[in-house]
User: Which sequence fits this backbone?
């Protein structure tokens, strides 16, 4: 997202029942990976269903700057002509990843294995996010980093003469860090392994295999997993079909669940179990969700979701579920505000280092909307009354798309409308959010 833009406030008023059949945009995680890995194959990869949001467009531009040929053929249909695993070229200027932590961290991994210097930056949100979680393991592989105090962007990544394979145990459950190491490992001789204490989204592993790399996953005795990539493969292009993003589907899904009389269908949504914690949790809360027409597309499971409004019960969400729904807690908290009873969401420390401090933004926003909620360490506790919320607040978005969308969803059941001070960040992940929501029955518009 551009660093300076006119604020784009929006207000969400009580919605009509949400209805219709809709397709949310392509999965953001898979879209980034298809451009980056497509750019590391030898030949041409076609991608269907690519998310054309600002985050992914920034990654497409970055891959062009690194020497890949990236072209758009039509709506969501893109082609990437790759340079091979070790063939990326030194960019002439700084790469701006905008708002995207996934973009920058995965690109750092891809750039790390090249004998080039790449300088990365991003918007004000991305420039305050921690990059040491990537530079520490890649540093062990021999890569040099020069960045700002505290491991912040802008940061230069200087690829070594010879990259060393490593085995690295993740200190935090992070698919971005895992992926950065595996992408760097592609350029290293021998085998690079990542041990993850809790399984995180495995789209990188799936797509690496799809393009012909050898990836092994071993279950270790205490629930950990070791993921190993064999270095220096030749990656062959294969078509990629990007499923609809479950993290985007979460917003109309929760809006439909809490808005009386709603009945919507969201088609072709990715149902990868490592991404599906929210839907699992909503079903435990008593949500009426049917998973129809289950199928596998380009290695990823998808289904059509039919969602009907109904009462929700509060529950206790265990910390172990966090990696499979880390981006969904803000909108789950909105569902919890409308559920009956006290919902406890445990182990949300990582929410503090997302596009904004989502833990604080969610809690403060709920309180401002008249919802009883509190923090207990890294646990977020929401007391729902099951009969709407007061609303009447304007939520500061702080460049965070998911905070903006979560509170606009809550506005669907608020007595007094809920506003967001700047909805521009929604363009990073869900460019047609407003059209889809309003087409279904929501009343979201600029302030009168
Ligand atoms: C992502 C991983 C998650 C998630 C982000 C996308 C990915 O971040 O929050 O939106 O595509 O790998 P972490 O890996 O840092 O938890």
Assistant:
């Amino acid at each position: 997202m551009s660093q300076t833009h006119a604020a784009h406030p929006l207000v969400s008023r009580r919605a009509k029942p949400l209805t219709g059949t809709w397709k949310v945009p392509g999965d953001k995680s898979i879209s980034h990976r298809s451009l980056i890995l497509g750019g590391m194959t030898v030949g041409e990869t076609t991608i269907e269903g690519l998310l054309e949001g600002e985050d992914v467009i920034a990654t497409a531009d970055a891959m062009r700057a690194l020497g890949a040929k990236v072209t758009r053929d039509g709506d969501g249909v893109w082609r990437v002509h790759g340079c091979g695993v070790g063939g990326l070229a030194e960019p002439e200027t700084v790469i701006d990843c905008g708002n995207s932590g996934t973009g920058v961290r995965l690109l750092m991994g891809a750039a790390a294995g090249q004998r080039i210097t790449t300088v990365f930056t991003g918007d004000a949100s991305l420039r305050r996010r921690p990059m040491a979680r990537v530079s520490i393991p890649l540093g062990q592989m021999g890569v040099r980093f020069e960045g700002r105090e505290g491991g912040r962007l802008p940061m230069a990544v200087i690829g070594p003469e010879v990259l060393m394979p490593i085995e690295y145990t993740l200190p935090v459950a992070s698919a971005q860090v895992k992926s950065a190491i595996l992408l760097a490992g592609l350029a290293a001789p021998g085998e690079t392994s990542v041990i993850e204490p809790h399984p995180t989204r495995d789209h990188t592993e799936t797509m690496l295999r799809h393009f012909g790399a050898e990836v092994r996953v071993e279950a270790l005795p205490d629930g950990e997993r070791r993921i190993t990539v064999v270095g220096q493969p030749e990656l062959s292009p294969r078509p990629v079909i990007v499923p609809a993003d479950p993290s985007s589907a979460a917003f109309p899904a929760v809006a439909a669940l809490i808005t009386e009389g709603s009945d919507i269908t969201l088609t072709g949504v990715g149902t990868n179990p490592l991404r599906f914690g929210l839907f699992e949790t909503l079903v435990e809360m008593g949500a009426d969700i049917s998973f129809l027409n289950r199928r596998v597309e380009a290695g990823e499971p998808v289904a059509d979701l039919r969602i009907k409004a109904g009462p929700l019960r509060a529950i206790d969400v265990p910390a172990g579920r966090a990696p499979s729904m880390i981006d969904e807690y803000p909108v789950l908290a909105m569902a919890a505000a409308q559920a009956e009873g006290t919902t406890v969401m445990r182990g949300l420390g990582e929410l503090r280092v997302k596009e904004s401090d989502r833990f604080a933004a969610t809690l403060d926003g709920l309180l401002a909307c008249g919802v009883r909620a509190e923090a207990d360490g890294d646990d977020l506790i929401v007391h729902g009354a099951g009969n709407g919320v007061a609303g009447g607040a304007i939520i500061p978005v702080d460049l965070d798309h998911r905070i903006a969308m979560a509170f606009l969803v809550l506005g669907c059941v608020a007595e007094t409308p809920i506003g967001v001070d700047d909805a521009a960040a929604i363009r990073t992940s869900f460019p047609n959010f407003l059209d889809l929501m309003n087409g279904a029955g929501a009343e979201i518009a600029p302030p009168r």
